[in-house]
């Protein structure tokens, strides 16, 4: 395909996942055009059973989806998170985070498949988005006046700004030589759906055990009216293969022991999947005509469910900066505007990353004494409404200097 048939766009977004496609749609709502390039086949990504994961969408992230016109489509599929219960092995000293009625919920749970379907359907009808799926990039260039990507079939895509949204293993980030702080937690998250006897009442459970967090995330009842939750069970890497190899009956027994009958009789729904857990963070998120967003910039432990939300805050900030550049007649790749994006996101991402890493290590300390100290601290937080409110505001993403798209 010739360059003539591929006119230059404002953005060249490499990676069309949840964060990359949200950026393309949010930018389009502001009149900013983009090429979106992804190696995956959309049909495979949205197939039943491809990805059993679910994501907690914070209040601020929901505002973003509302402001770009996706809320009406998504609303029927989201399960409100009415409260969060945090406990050390179901022992005394638990914390309950429950907002006041007028504040709404702590967020909504969505199946990742639902989010993808909604984003992909909206992108198909958006004239300012040119979507290149099942496309492999063989060359990336960032010049003085623009950027380009050459696809395997010879197509050359041109734009003003390149955005890396390819996830943790971002080849664009690696090629650009960004320095990464990273380490392996030597744990694996095992994910599966559950059907259970008792209603979850919108409560998300975070139960900490010595081998890792055990999270129960509320989902909408299924078509038959059965109560459902998503399980994210963290186990040591050395034990992961053994846990994954358990028969369904043995696996269910291990889950039941850790749930302490809080949801009554349970059964497994779907197949198990797993992924390794690690930490990675770039000191910088911009370079010449290049910006990083989402997991390409910061990958974290799922302990607080903030990974996707942090990426969506990147989207909001970058779109704000690009909109301002457009108003001033500046190039989308203008170095000063990109510096503003980096400064805006630096403190927030560092705080969230640091908090999740600290929680992971704190609750991973073994022993009776460590457990007693944790529970003492949690009981103290439970008795301090102002501190609980600060934690809830952070979880909802409504604190700090918010981009316009993330405001209600």
Describe this structure in words.
With 408 residues, the chain is α+β, with helices and mostly antiparallel strands. The protein has a domain of 262 residues: FAD/NAD(P)-binding domain (3-Layer(bba) Sandwich), CATH 3.50.50. Helix content is 36%, strand content 29%. Strands 1, 2, 8, 9, 10, 11, 17 and 18 form an eight-stranded mixed sheet that branches. An eight-stranded mixed sheet has the order 6-5-13-14-15-12-16-19. A three-stranded antiparallel sheet has the order 3-7-4. Strand 10 and strand 11 form a beta hairpin.
The CATH architecture designation of the domain at 3-77 and 112-182 and 280-364 and 376-406 is 3-Layer(bba) Sandwich
How many helices does DSSP assign?
12
Give the helix level as a range of percent: 25-40%
- What general form does the structure show? globular
End-to-end span in angstroms?
A: 43 Å
Question: How many β-strand stretches?
Answer: 19
Poorly predicted runs of 5 or more residues = 1-5
Broad structural category: alpha+beta
CATH class descriptor of the domain at 3-77 and 112-182 and 280-364 and 376-406: Alpha Beta
> What is the CATH H-level superfamily of the domain at 3-77 and 112-182 and 280-364 and 376-406?
FAD/NAD(P)-binding domain
CATH fold-level name of the domain at 3-77 and 112-182 and 280-364 and 376-406: FAD/NAD(P)-binding domain
